[in-house]
């Protein structure tokens, strides 16, 4: 099948491996070097291929060491520019060729973010990080930039000696650059096949701390110890995920906490999850956000959507697995509570896009549509709602999690479509086909707006938030002294966030007020710690970032960078800021 977001023809050839030799230039804000693509022919008399590029300077191209003719086609608004390569020989089906491209990125490459020292925690060294999802890897290197293509990679990266490089791969040593003693070459290997959007690089004044037998946390020294404490339960989450979904195949699971100016929530890069520093609450109360990124190690990274039209296969299953981890580590009520919040996020996205907007389809058409413009909570929460609905029909969480685990095992290391997923669903539950046939699949998959079935969630944990918010909203100014710190301290961090969101929602909807429900603060409120609520916790949603303005009784401050909501939803709002609530982890 064709990928509407790529120039490549996937019926003629496929990339099996990348070998990268890169030099990071902070003065010019470019990466220069060479990529060697091991390409397998899928047809006889194969002699030409097309790669995706975006704003790249192509210096030369060779095939098995022989010069190859190449040309750049017409630039497309969001797909970039096709790189057409003609080989100096023909290949038969099944044969391989190594295509080498020498190139340089643009200072404005959409995948690369160059930070000045002032934008970092340490204020002394520059910083580089990449973000390739969904279709931005082509601005960092020429490639078949589609999630349908999976390959391994090896990389050597030359950086200034005062800086450290890390990538979405296993570290493989480092050495002084033989061509420049003022630089260090870091080596990386990724032996597990993965799509191009998961290639990631970070260069900065980094340090690391061990947080488990297969995990380290990376950050600038100003944040690294806080991060090590915050994410010390990572191994427990990994083991819980393995019990649910099967073995973790990626070897290392590290977490990189980016500088305070990092504007995203998180990204599930293999071996190296990116995380916002706003998760560092100081009491591990937001560390469960990592559960979403961990879940992507199975759904998204190991089993991947074939094109971005099937993005819900990545995110819906990841949210489902994330909440199953929460169920194991917290309770079923906690899973239900998070699912209720997700349903509200979905309603917000549908309201923002419009109930008849085809981009609110679970499986939208992306023909001539920038996939960045399609990102929202829809694939996450409409996808989860479908899986939860099927869970109820098929016999409960244990039964349906058995299907999810089997689906992961069957399609591991490959990319899939919705039809392939659905066909296997019917195969796995072959004794319940009559029930599955009653599902309105067209309404779920291809109809815009909210799902055809609204789940009935357990409201126990939400009821406490609603009751307290109503108490605040109905109180008169003279009643404020009756509020106590214990009112909030009886709530969990997630309940406090929901409580504040309810207040903010009411304030926004009130025609009488655009700021606070009451003009003065309760007598026991404290700016530095409002009822035990540390300001960092507000970053779990984007709406409460404005709570300092909208909910003055608690006088909670917040910075301007969005944080992560349920786990990996960083990708959506983090990177693209299209949904009205929550910064999504990708």
TrEMBL record:
Active-site residues (renumbered): 293 (proton acceptor), 380 (proton donor)
Annotated stretches, region: Disordered: 511-586
Protein name listed in UniProt: Leukotriene A-4 hydrolase
Keyword presence, Cytoplasm: yes
Pfam family, one: Peptidase_M1_N
Keywords: Cytoplasm, Hydrolase, Leukotriene biosynthesis, Metal-binding, Metalloprotease, Protease, Zinc
Domain Aminopeptidase N-like N-terminal, first and last residues per copy: 15-198
EC number: 3.3.2.6
Domain Peptidase M1 membrane alanine aminopeptidase: 234-435
Entry-linked CDD domains: M1_LTA4H
EC category name: hydrolase
Cofactor requirement: Zn(2+)
Pathway field: Lipid metabolism; leukotriene B4 biosynthesis
Cofactor note: Binds 1 zinc ion per subunit.
Annotated GO biological process: leukotriene biosynthetic process; peptide catabolic process; proteolysis
Keyword Nucleotidyltransferase attributed: no
Extent of Basic and acidic residues compositional bias: 524-544, 566-576
Gene3D superfamilies in alphabetical order: 3.30.2010.30, Neutral Protease Domain 2, Peptidase M1, leukotriene A4 hydrolase/aminopeptidase C-terminal domain, tricorn interacting facor f3 domain
Source species: Stegastes partitus (bicolor damselfish)
One annotated GO molecular function: aminopeptidase activity
GO cellular component, one term: nucleus
Family as reported in the entry's similarity comment: Belongs to the peptidase M1 family.
PANTHER family from the UniProt entry: LEUKOTRIENE A-4 HYDROLASE
Compartments where located: Cytoplasm
Annotated positions binding Zn(2+): 292, 296, 315
Main location: cytoplasm
SUPFAM superfamilies, alphabetized: ARM repeat, Leukotriene A4 hydrolase N-terminal domain, Metalloproteases ('zincins'), catalytic domain
